[in-house]
Design goal:
mainly alpha, 434 Repressor (Amino-terminal Domain), 2 domains
C-alpha cells in the first residue's frame, strides 16, 4: 500500500474530503490532490509527510514504507512500551535482548541500525531512480555500500 493509498484510507476512516484535510493540516489542496493521484512519491516534501503523520497520528515509516500496512506500526502506548500486537515474535525477542545489553552496547547497536537503515534508504532510492537493469552502476553502488558498512 503506497502513500496515496494510505492517506485515502486514513481520510475515509475520519470521513474527510481533500478540502477538509487541506484546511486542517495547512497542506495546499493541490499538493494533496497531487499526492493522491500519483504513484511516484519521491518529490513529496518531508514537511508535508510530517504534517500528515502528525494529523493522522501514525509514523513516518508507516506512511513511507509500502510494505508496512499496520497503522500502529512503531507507535508506543502511554506506558512507553512498544505495543506487542504490532510486533512479530522475532522483533519482541530482539527488543528483549536489546534491553539486556549494557548502555554502551545499546549505543553501538543504535549506531549500527542507523547505518543499515540509511544504506537501505539509499538503495531503495537508487532502485527507484535507476531500476535494477544497470548492472555496472549497481556494482559500483554495492562497492560503495560495502565501504560504508565498515
Amino acid at each position: 500500500m503506497n502513500l496515496g493509498e494510505k492517506i485515502k484510507m486514513l481520510m475515509k476512516e475520519k470521513n474527510l474530503r481533500k478540502s477538509d484535510l487541506s484546511r486542517e493540516t495547512g497542506i495546499p489542496y493541490t499538493t494533496l490532490d497531487g499526492i493522491l493521484k500519483r504513484d511516484d512519491f519521491s518529490k513529496v516534501k518531508l514537511d508535508t509527510v510530517q504534517l500528515l503523520k502528525n494529523y493522522f497520528d501514525v509514523t513516518l515509516d508507516y506512511l513511507m514504507i509500502d510494505e508496512i500496512t499496520d497503522k500502529n506500526y512503531g507507535k508506543q502506548n502511554k506506558g512507553n512500551l512498544i505495543m506487542e500486537n504490532s510486533l512479530m515474535s522475532k522483533e519482541s525477542t530482539l527488543i528483549e535482548k536489546y534491553r539486556e545489553l549494557a548502555e554502551t552496547d545499546q549505543t553501538k547497536v543504535d549506531d549500527y541500525v542507523d547505518k543499515l537503515h540509511k544504506l537501505q534508504m539509499l538503495e531503495d532510492a537508487w532502485t527507484r531512480k535507476f531500476g535494477n537493469d544497470d548492472s555496472d552502476l549497481r556494482e559500483e553502488f554495492e562497492k560503495w555500500k560495502k565501504s560504508k558498512e565498515k
